[in-house]
Description:
alpha+beta, Alpha-Beta Plaits, 4-stranded antiparallel β-sheet, 34% helix, 15% strand, binds 2-acetamido-2-deoxy-beta-D-glucopyranose
Amino acid sequence: MEDVVFLLLCVSSAAAAQLCAPDASNGYKVRLSILTALGDEAYVWNDSEMFLFRAALAFAMRTADGQNYNVSNVLVCDETPRVSFWFVVTSPLNPTLLVERRQVEEAVRKSRNRINSAFMLTDNTLEFLGIPPTLAAPVPPSSPPG
Ligand SMILES: *[C@@H]1O[C@H](CO)[C@@H](O)[C@H](O)[C@H]1NC(C)=O
Ligand SMILES: *[C@@H]1O[C@H](CO)[C@@H](O)[C@H](O)[C@H]1NC(C)=O
């Protein structure tokens, strides 16, 4: 544990990307099933989509704790083509420090619907492994009954 703290303190901002690693204690794995969700309408995951993900997470973090998170505060690593990746969030006040997992989890839960809708996906096709989906209230029928 002390080793981890020591390591974080030693990391320069130039090496910030190394803060993100698979199984990082403050990281989360995300798995997308774009083809399953959208079939013929599926879009190709690329750098622009990843930018949107990072922006959505920065938005979620801002909404949750009021600090000015930027896209640069969301670091992504270990991306696989089918599509999965890990991410960590760094503090806007000190980019060498990681935001705690539970804070990230709270932010993701609060903005879950906004994040899902940015990618036209659902809790089942945009999975944050280790963050169970919130039991959102069912969407009310679009036309009033009767
Ligand atoms: C990403 O894919 C979209 C289509 O899904 C395309 O319009 C866009 O130009 C691509 N962006 C990059 C950076 O490849
Ligand atoms: C976020 O990025 C903008 C533009 O690069 C910058 O002006 C602003 O200071 C950044 N905010 C923080 C909290 O780092």
